[in-house]
Amino acid sequence: MTPHTLRWYIVALVFAATAVSYVQRQTLSVVAPLLRDDLAITNFEYARIVFSFLLAYTIMQPVTGWLIDRTGTRVGFALVLGWWSVAAMLHALAQGVVSFSVCRFLLGMGQAGSWAASVRAVSEWFPREQRGFANGIWGAGTSVGTIVAVPLVAWITLAFGWRMAFVLTGCVGLIWLVLWLVFYGSLA
């Protein structure tokens, strides 16, 4: 396979990682009405849970960027995606506002690295004249993940419960992680 062909596989994987991150991020929003009833979470407490994600996401942007620069794209992306997928799954164990806030903070810590890893992957695999287009492709994963999240998470929740929605969406990230390590590793 030529480098020209390989780069499109890389951007497809980055697109998938972005979509997965947004599915995992939106899972809380989809199951929120059930959480409010099941765990008696008020709107104010829900806002604190959401704030925890945003705080970590903001603080960790430069930290995860530094990490990816130090470890390289393959390892760095694997670390942050593995972290955030496990954090997504941990939501299934949450019992209230504090534990959900901790899980959201952990999710935000990992997902902060997605942008740095994605941009770095594109810069390594694409010539300058194609980087805007390639970044647009993986960036579209944000919309696809958000669109897919509502019906997917609603279906999982109705079929298996809200806790399994967190577990299964986290598992999708771990499947991506295996593909990334195998595929990207074979390219290095």
Topology, element by element:
Elements: H1 3-38, H2 43-71, H3 73-90, H4 97-111, H5 113-125, H6 128-160, H7 162-187
Helix pairs in contact: 1-3, 1-5, 1-6, 1-7, 2-3, 2-4, 2-5, 3-4, 3-5, 3-7, 5-6, 6-7
Q: What's the gyration radius in Å?
A: 17 Å
Assembly of the depicted chains:
single chain
Strand content: under 5%
Query: What number is the mean pLDDT?
Result: 94
Q: Give the helix/strand class.
A: mainly alpha
List segments where confidence is low: pLDDT < 50 over at least 5 consecutive residues: none
With helices defined by DSSP (H or I, 4 residues minimum), what is the helix count? 7
Give the biggest beta sheet: none
**Coarse morphology:** globular
User: Would you report the number of β strands?
Assistant: 0
Helix content: over 70%
Distance between the termini: 13 Å
Q: Order of SSEs, N→C?
A: HHHHHHH
